[in-house]
Amino acid sequence: MDVTEILEAHKAQFKPITVEKAIPLDLDVNLLTAFDTNAFDEKKLKADTEEYVKELTRDNTQLLVNEIFKLPVEGADAGVLAKLPARTYQLPREKPLPKDRPLTRWEKFAKAKGIQNRKRERFVWDEEKEQYVPRWGYAGGQKDKLDDWLIEVPQHADPMEDMYAKKREEKKERVDKNKKRQRRNEEENVAAKMAGKSQIKDFKKEELKAAIAASKSATASLGKFDAEVQPSKKKKKSKK
Question: Does the keyword Zinc apply (predicted)?
Answer without folding.
Answer: no
